[in-house]
Design a protein that fits this description.
Chain B: This is Molybdate ABC transporter substrate-binding protein. The complex is a heterodimer. By secondary structure, chain A is mainly α. Chain A has 10 helices and no strands. Chain A has one domain: MetI-like (MetI-like fold, Orthogonal Bundle), CATH 1.10.3720.10. The chains are: A mainly alpha, B alpha/beta. Chains A and B meet through helix 3 and helix 9 of A and helix 5 and strand 7 of B.
Amino acid sequence: MFDPNSIFTALRLSVTLALVTVVIAVSIGIPLAWWLAYSRNWWRDVCSSIITLPLVLPPTVLGFYLLLALGPSGLGAVAAHITGRSTFAFSFAGLTIGSVIAALPYIVQSTQAAFETIGHKPIEIAYTLRTPPLRAFLSVALPLAAPGIIAGAVIAFAHTIGEFGLVLMIGGDIPGQTRLLSIMLFDSVETGDWASAHAIAGGMVAFAFMIILILRLTQKRLTPRT
Amino acid sequence: MNAFRSDFDTDGMNLTFRPIRLPLLCFIMAGPLLPTVARAEQARMAIAANFIGPTKELIADFMQKTGDVIIPSFGSSGQFVIQIEQGAGYDGFLSADEAKPEKLLKDGFGVEKSQFTYAIGKLVLWSNTPAYPASESTLRAARFSHLALCKPDVAPYGAAAVATLKQLRLEQILQPRIVMGLDIAQAYQFVQSGNAELGFVALSQLHNKSAGTIWVVPSNLYPPIHQNALLLRQGEQNHVARAFLAYLQSKPAQAIIATYGYDMP
């Protein structure tokens, strides 16, 4: 039953999903965090709470709503039909939608905290030197917030690798498309294939350790000394 | 000493009341639990997910007749085998096949001679999407994008579905469209939500439901699904577990099971 090839397929899929998720979540997350950090709108806190929801809810809640949303009577089906599918469930695209929603709070919270720590001052100084707003953002705010953004991205990456409940509910366990490492571990345990289970679980422990170690080391190096 | 005494006096009411009140409260709260704990008149059963519907009726009927409590857990048969072998505290096991209780017996987790067939399952193709009515021709036309079934290596109905596809020589063509549920309950739910246009489920799951279209798979397309029950070592001394398994073979229980579309042994 132990099959290194299928484990490798699942590994590649998990890593791809995590990378795609982080790239999308970072591109949405940075502008969102910027707005959340500096806006004085009363509904800022409402938005922030909605983004944070997946952090508090069991992933199965997200999975349940996604399954309904992706189904034929849901909003997702409209988008799916445009791209010529019947549903986004049981597909890499569907998993990506779910994991971006789940990963977004990690990135937004961490980035927002970074922007808030920087405060208005450096940006205002850039303005007095006649730096255009976009330039000020890109060359002043972004580099200063980098440690926070990277920390958020690493956590989001690791979280996506570890995603289980959500994928279990909308994945459908298709090899090469939705059978992630975490699902494959579950399958192996369910069928009594301890060899594969040990390989995957042991690998994941090592991976998690590496992530935390990298995070600690980079945070030390990137944090600006004052 | 004096200071202590005066303290004691002023708080006297509290000090005397508290020790009485708390145990009393615990006793009242635990009241409903006490009879079951003290007499242990309950049994935990691991039950294959296709049998959820009849189980609810059977347990209600059994409890009404005996006053004993059955605590069911639902999942795929294969998943329960692993759990039982790892020491899960089930007293009895209602599998969706013969092979899994047989294996548990062989490995020493079951009680000899306690195995019996409680139902013979029927596999159906079900659709909740009107554009794809459940039928052999829809299956052959292969215009749908997802066909749900449950994992064949742990769920006997999944194995029956795969056998059917093989028999129809559709296995190769449909392989890329197959989505797997953990157990048959999840396969059902994939079809119900419309995310999969078609799915192989158990006839019993569609009891009293008018939604969608059904094709009862001809029984010559898959090996018969003999669903066997087994008393587990854990429940050997549990008279409730024994009574429930005996009840399953009684006329009233068999009548309930038959209404869900199962054949009787």
